[in-house]
C-alpha cells in the first residue's frame, strides 16, 4: 500500500498563540490518507481547507467575537485524528512486513522443496541407470545359458559394463526392449574390451535385506555390497528362491528362459533361474526342480536335512557361475551354510575356467558349525575319503563327523570374522567353539572386521522422520527431537531432563533384577526412560515382559510396537541408549546411538554394576578401540553423574562420537577391500 500523509502536526510541548483577526487567521492544512489508486482511506477523511474556513466563518457569524479556545480545540482534534491515522499506517506497515516475512519463508520452503525434488529426481535417474546396467548384465547371463555367446565373450561384455557403466546406461537405454539378437549386435558393436579397475565379487549366501532376513548376515550382505558398488566394484548375490521371499522388493524379477543342471545325489538335477535387482544389486535366485521342497518351507533353518538343502544350493551356485561364463575375482561365502563351496571349488571347479577366482569366507557365528556323517559329502560330488582328515573337514572333537564350517575355513583363501568388539586373539582362544586349533593353524588368513550401518538412512542431518535435523556442530534440533519424543510418550516436556532409551533385541545376558534396580534409582533422579523392541522377530522372552510389568513409574514408558519413524525419534530424542551389548550385529544399536548423539551404555551386568566385558587386546578394530576408551567402562549412574558434574567433557564425547564414521562404507569396507586385494595378489 502506498500512502501519502500530508499533515500539520503541532509541536509536542505547546502551541503558538493565534490571532483572531482575519488577517492572521490560521488555515488548517488538509490531512488525507490515500491509497495507491488515490482513493481516500476509509478510516479518516479530513475536511478540505474551504470547508474549514466556511466552518470558521459560520462560527464567527454566529458569535461576533471568536473564541480562541474553540480554535485551539479544533486544532487538537485535527492533531488527534492525524495521530490515529499514523498509528493505523504503522499497523498497516507492520502487517506488510509480516506478509513479506511470510512470503520470504514460503519462498525459501518452496526453493528447498524444489531442491529436494531435484535431488530425488537425480537419485531416481541414478537408480534407473543402475537398473539398466543390471538388466544388461542379466541379459548377458541369459545369452550364455541359451548358447548365443561363449563364456569368454560374456566376460568381456561384463567388464565393459563395469568399466563404462555411465556411458553404457545412456547408450543402451532405448534398446533394452529389443530381442537378444539385436541387443547382442549392439553389444558387439560397442565393446572395446577395456580393462576394469574394480573387483567382481559374487556372494553365495542364504540371506539378504530386504528380501529374506533372519540374522545379521542379511544386513551385512546388503550393506557391504552397497559400499563396494559405490566405489566402483561389481557385486552380485546368489540366493535360494525361497517360497517366503518378499518379491515386492525385487525389481524386474523374471525367470531366465533356460535351465541349467547341477550334480547332486549321483545325477544331474535341473534348476530354474530367476533374476532381479535389489537396492541396485543384481540378484540371482536358484530354484531346484526335482528337490522343489528344499526352499518352500516355513523357516529358513532348523531342519534335519539342512546340510542337503544348502549343499545342493552351494553346488548349484557354482554350476551356474561356470555355465553363465562368470569369472569373478572373489567368491564370497558365508557361515556353514555355504562353507562347502570352499572344498567344492578347489576339488571340482577351479579348472572349469575359474583359475583367477579366489574364495573368501565370512563367519558371523561359530555356535553353529554343521556336523554331519562324512559319507554325506558325496551328495554334492565330494570324496569323503580325501576330506575326512584332521587337517581338512574332520571335526576336532568328534572325529567320526565332518565339520562343514571347518572345511570352509581350511579351503578359503581368507576368512573374515565379523566382530565389533573382540580381537583375533580372544576369538581364537575364547570364542572359537572347538575350532581353536584350526584357527591357530590358519591364523595368518584370519581378519577381524566390524559391523556397520547404513549412514544414508541413519543420518540426523537429513533424517526425514525427525521434526528437526541437527549435526554435531549445531545440536539445537536434538533438543526439539527430545521434546517431540516426550510429547509422544506423555512424559514431562523439558529438554534439560535426561532421557534414556533402551532398545532390546535379545536380553539373555542381562540381569533384569539389577536393571530394574538401576532404572528405579535413576527414575528418582528425575531421569526418563523409554523401552522398546526393534526386532522384527516376535519376542518369546517372558522374563522381559515380567520385568516391564514390574516397573511402574511415571518416568518410564514401554513401546511394544515401534515403527520406523518412532525408532528414529528414540535415537534422536535420547541422551543415553542402554545396549544389551556393544556387539550388536542385528540392530547396530550402539553405532546408531553414537551417530544420533546419544551415548551407548552397555547393561551387561557384573555383580551390581553394569559393565561391558572389555577386550584389552587393542589389536582389534578401530570401533572397538573407540568404544573402549569412551563409553565401555561407564555404568549408567556414572554417565548421569558426568552429565551433571562435567557437562563440557560429556558434550565433547558426544560430538566426537557423532563425527566418527562407523558405517559400512568406513572400516568394514576398508577391511574387505584389503582382503580382496590380498586375494587378487595370491
TrEMBL record:
EC number(s) given by UniProt: 2.4.1.21
Substrates-to-products reaction catalysed: [(1->4)-alpha-D-glucosyl](n) + ADP-alpha-D-glucose = [(1->4)-alpha-D-glucosyl](n+1) + ADP + H(+)
Keyword Coiled coil belongs to the record: yes
UniProt KW keywords: Coiled coil, Glycosyltransferase, Starch biosynthesis, Transferase
Domain named Starch synthase catalytic: residues: 200-437
Pathway in which the depicted protein is active: Glycan biosynthesis; starch biosynthesis
Coiled coil as UniProt keyword: yes
Coiled coil: 97-127
Domain of life: Eukaryota
PANTHER family: PTHR46083, UDP-GLYCOSYLTRANSFERASE SUPERFAMILY PROTEIN (PTHR46083:SF3)
Protein name per Swiss-Prot or TrEMBL: starch synthase
Origin species: Vitis vinifera
Lineage, opening ranks: Eukaryota, Viridiplantae, Streptophyta, Embryophyta, Tracheophyta
Amino acid at each position: 500500500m502506498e500512502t501519502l500523509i500530508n499533515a500539520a502536526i503541532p509541536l509536542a510541548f505547546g502551541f503558538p498563540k493565534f490571532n483572531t483577526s482575519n488577517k492572521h487567521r490560521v488555515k488548517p492544512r488538509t490531512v488525507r490518507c490515500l491509497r495507491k489508486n488515490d482513493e481516500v482511506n476509509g478510516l479518516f477523511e479530513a475536511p478540505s481547507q474551504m470547508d474549514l474556513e466556511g466552518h470558521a466563518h459560520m462560527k464567527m457569524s454566529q458569535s461576533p467575537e471568536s473564541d480562541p479556545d474553540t480554535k485551539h480545540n479544533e486544532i487538537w482534534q485535527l492533531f488527534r485524528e492525524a495521530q490515529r491515522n499514523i498509528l493505523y499506517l504503522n499497523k498497516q506497515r507492520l502487517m506488510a512486513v509480516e506478509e513479506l516475512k511470510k512470503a520470504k519463508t514460503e519462498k525459501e520452503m518452496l526453493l528447498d522443496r524444489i531442491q529436494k525434488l531435484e535431488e530425488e529426481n537425480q537419485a531416481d535417474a541414478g537408480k534407473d541407470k543402475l537398473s539398466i546396467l543390471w538388466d544388461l548384465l542379466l541379459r548377458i547371463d541369459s545369452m550364455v545359458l541359451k548358447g548365443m555367446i561363449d563364456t569368454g565373450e560374456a566376460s568381456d561384455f561384463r567388464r565393459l559394463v563395469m568399466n563404462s557403466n555411465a556411458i553404457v546406461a545412456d547408450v543402451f537405454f532405448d534398446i533394452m526392449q529389443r530381442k537378444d539378437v539385436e541387443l547382442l549386435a549392439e553389444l558387439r558393436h560397442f565393446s572395446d574390451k577395456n580393462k576394469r579397475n574394480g573387483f567382481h565379487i559374487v556372494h553365495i549366501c542364504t540371506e539378504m535385506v530386504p528380501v529374506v532376513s533372519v540374522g545379521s548376515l542379511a544386513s551385512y550382505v546388503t550393506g557391504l555390497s552397497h559400499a563396494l558398488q559405490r566405489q566402483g566394484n561389481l557385486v552380485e548375490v546368489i540366493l535360494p528362491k525361497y517360497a517366503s521371499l518378499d518379491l515386492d522388493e525385487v525389481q524386474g524379477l523374471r525367470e531366465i528362459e533356460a535351465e541349467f543342471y547341477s550334480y547332486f545325489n549321483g545325477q544331474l538335477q535341473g534348476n530354474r533361474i530367476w533374476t532381479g535387482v535389489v537396492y541396485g544389486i543384481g540378484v540371482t535366485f536358484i530354484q531346484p526342480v526335482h528337490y522343489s521342497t528344499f526352499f518352500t518351507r516355513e523357516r529358513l533353518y532348523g531342519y534335519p536335512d539342512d546340510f542337503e538343502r544348502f549343499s545342493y544350493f552351494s553346488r548349484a551356485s557354482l554350476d551356474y557361475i561356470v555355465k553363465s561364463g562368470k569369472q569373478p575375482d572373489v567368491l564370497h561365502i558365508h557361515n556353514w551354510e555355504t562353507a562347502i563351496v570352499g572344498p567344492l571349488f578347489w576339488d571340482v571347479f577351479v579348472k572349469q575356467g575359474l583359475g583367477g577366482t579366489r574364495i573368501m569366507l565370512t563367519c558371523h557365528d561359530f555356535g553353529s558349525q554343521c556336523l554331519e556323517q562324512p559319507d554325506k559329502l558325496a551328495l554334492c560330488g565330494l570324496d569323503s575319503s580325501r576330506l575326512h582328515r584332521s587337517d581338512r573337514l574332520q571335526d576336532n572333537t568328534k572325529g567320526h563327523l565332518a565339520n562343514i564350517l571347518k572345511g570352509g575355513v581350511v579351503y578359503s583363501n581368507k576368512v573374515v570374522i565379523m566382530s565389533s568388539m573382540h580381537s583375533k586373539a580372544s576369538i581364537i582362544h575364547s570364542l572359537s567353539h572347538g575350532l581353536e586349533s584350526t584357527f591357530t593353524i590358519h591364523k595368518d588368513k584370519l581378519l577381524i572386521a566390524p559391523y556397520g550401518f547404513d549412514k544414508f538412512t541413519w543420518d540426523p542431518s537429513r533424517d526425514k522422520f525427525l521434526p528437526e535435523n541437527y549435526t554435531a556442530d549445531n545440536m539445537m534440533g536434538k533438543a526439539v527431537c527430545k521434546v517431540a519424543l516426550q510429547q509422544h510418550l506423555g512424559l514431562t516436556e523439558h529438554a534439560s531432563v535426561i532421557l534414556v532409551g533402551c532398545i532390546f533385541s535379545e536380553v539373555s545376558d542381562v540381569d533384569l533384577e539389577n536393571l530394574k534396580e538401576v532404572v528405579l534409582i535413576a527414575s528418582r533422579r528425575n531421569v526418563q526412560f523409554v523401552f522398546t523392541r526393534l526386532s522384527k522377530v516376535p519376542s518369546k522372552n517372558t522374563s522381559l515382559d515380567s520385568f516391564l510389568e514390574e516397573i511402574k513409574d511415571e518416568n518410564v514408558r514401554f513401546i511394544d510396537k515401534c515403527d520406523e519413524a518412532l525408532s528414529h525419534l528414540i535415537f534422536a530424542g535420547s541422551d543415553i541408549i542402554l545396549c544389551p551389548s556393544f556387539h550388536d550385529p542385528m540392530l547396530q544399536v550402539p553405532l546408531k546411538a553414537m551417530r544420533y548423539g546419544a551415548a551407548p551404555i552397555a547393561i551387561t551386568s557384573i555383580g551390581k554394576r553394569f559393565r561391558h566385558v572389555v577386550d584389552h587386546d587393542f589389536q582389534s578394530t578401530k570401533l572397538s578401540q573407540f568404544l573402549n576408551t569412551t563409553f565401555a567402562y561407564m555404568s549408567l549412574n556414572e554417565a548421569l553423574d558426568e552429565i551433571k558434574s562435567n557437562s563440557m567433557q560429556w558434550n565433547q564425547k558426544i560430538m566426537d562420537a557423532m563425527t566418527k564414521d562407523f558405517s559400512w562404507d568406513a572400516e568394514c569396507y576398508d577391511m574387505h577391500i584389503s582382503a580382496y586385494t590380498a586375494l587378487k595378489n595370491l
